[in-house]
Every structure is written in C-alpha cells, then in structure tokens.
Amino acid sequence: MQNSKPDYYNNLDKTYIKIWDLLEVGLAKRDAPFHIPIFISGNDSNFEGRIIVLRGLDKENKTLSFHSDIRSNKIKFLKSNPKGSFLFYDKEEKVQLRISCNIKIHYQNDKTKKSWKKTSHMSRQCYLGEVAPGLDSSKPSSGLSDEVDNSKYTIEESEVGYKNFCIIEAFILSVEWLYLAAKGHRRAKFFLKNNHVDKKWLIP
Ligand SMILES: Cc1cc2nc3c(=O)[nH]c(=O)nc-3n(C[C@H](O)[C@H](O)[C@H](O)COP(=O)(O)O)c2cc1C
C-alpha cells in the first residue's frame, strides 16, 4: 500500500480529474490496466461480464466506446436492455472504477465507417468468421478459415468483415471511485449530468 497520500486523496474535484486521466491513459496505452475493462450487461435474470478493449473516449460528451461483432450475445442483451457497466481496476494506482452507462449501438453508419477504415489488418480478423460468435461448434475451432487464421487475406478481402462490425457507445451516467490506501480507503460517486457533475463521498 502507498504511504504518501496523492493530492486527490481528500479532494473530490481532483479525484474527478484523476478518473479522466486514468481513462485517457487506458485508451492510449495498450499495456495500461484501464485498456481492457470488463463490460457488464444483462436482462432481468441474467448478467454477463466480458473483457473488452477500450477504443474511444469523449470527455466532452462523457462517453466511452468499444468495438464488437454485431452477431455477439452482448448485442442481444443490449437490444433488450440498453444499459451497461464498465469495471476498471489498476493495481499500481489502487483504483477501481464502476461506470454505469446508457448504451447506443452503432451499425453501418458514419461512425462505424470511419472506425472500420482505421481498423488494422490484424484487428479485422475478428470480424471475418462466417458463423456467429457464441454458437455451438461440433469441433474445436477459431471460427475462421485457414487462410484467415494464417492472416492470408488482403485488406480488400477483409472488407467483408464490415457487415459484422459495430461500435458500442456508452453514455456515462455515473462513476463510482474506490481508492485503496493503508491509511484509509476513499470511495466517491460522481453523477454526470448534461452540464455539471454531482460529487459525493461514500463510506468505503
Ligand atoms: C484481452 C481481450 C480483449 C477483448 N476485446 C474485445 C472487444 O474489444 N470487443 C468484444 O466484443 N470482445 C472482446 N473480447 C472478447 C470478449 O471478452 C467476449 O469473449 C466476446 O465479446 C463474447 O462475449 P459475449 O458472448 O458476451 O458477446 C476480448 C477478450 C479478451 C480476453
């Protein structure tokens, strides 16, 4: 546990700034713990969490986003209940974030077009399976053809993957902060409104 107290320890405004700093590092750095949060979604009777790669962040509009396959199970959940929660943990920083959001699925629109163009040859592989992810398979399988498995496809050939590509955009409603410290943990909650943020401390 850290012994010196960071400047945000007893300061809600600085804690809020720290949240966005950590998210920005998570977006930019592949090896940052915040790069691969857990995204949780569900319906009345069933919840599922899964790791995703943080692909977008908009501080002004208070959104986070990631890429996915439109055929995946999470999309079915999100269509019936467009709510989701991200769980982040940074061991070094001793910070856990729980971020609750309203979800919008982007499919075959300007936003997906722009992102697909920037999607690398390697990342496109995920969208080149002919069978939907999560379906039963009679044998062990990546779901990809041998050519695709061995990256033997051109960028032009990978264009067919666009029909499976979507962006999940998450509009942040609230952020719950937990900071672990030997001299006393700190927990806080931030409610993100249109033009302002309500901030309060909680008992850890
Ligand atoms: C390191 C890592 C990164 C992943 N990134 C993504 C991602 O960005 N988007 C995604 O849909 N699935 C991603 N996955 C796979 C999901 O965790 C999950 O297995 C998949 O999306 C199917 O989930 P579902 O059946 O709940 O839809 C990733 C998995 C790992 C281990």
Q: What topology does this entry show?
A:
Blueprint: H1 12-28, E1 38-42, E2 47-51, E3 56-58, E4 63-69, H2 73-80, E5 83-90, E6 95-106, H3 110-118, H4 121-124, H5 146-149, E7 165-179, E8 186-192, E9 197-202
Antiparallel strand pairs: 1-2, 1-5, 3-4, 4-7, 5-6, 6-7, 7-8, 8-9
The structure holds flavin mononucleotide.
Strand content: 25-35%
Q: Give a short account of the largest sheet.
A: 9 strands, antiparallel
* Structural class assignment: alpha+beta
CATH superfamily: Electron Transport, Fmn-binding Protein, Chain A
| The CATH C-level class name | Mainly Beta
Ligand inventory: flavin mononucleotide
Give the SSE string. Answer: HEEEEHEEHHHEEE
The total beta strand count reads 9
Tags for this model:
single chain; alpha+beta; binds flavin mononucleotide
How would you describe the overall organization of this protein?
With about 200 residues, the chain is an alpha+beta fold. It has one domain (about 10-200): Pnp Oxidase, Chain A, CATH 2.30.110. The protein is built from five helices and nine strands; from the N terminus they run αββββαββαααβββ. It has helices at about 10-30, 75-80, 110-120, 120-125, 145-150, and strands spanning about 40, 45-50, 55-60, 65-70, 85-90, 95-105, 165-180, 185-190, 195-200. Strands 1, 2, 3, 4, 5, 6, 7, 8 and 9 form a nine-stranded antiparallel beta sheet that branches. A hairpin with a 4-residue loop joins strand 5 and strand 6. The chain starts with 11 loop residues before the first helix and ends with a strand. The model has no long low-confidence stretch (mean pLDDT about 95). It binds flavin mononucleotide. Flavin mononucleotide binds near residues 67 and 73.
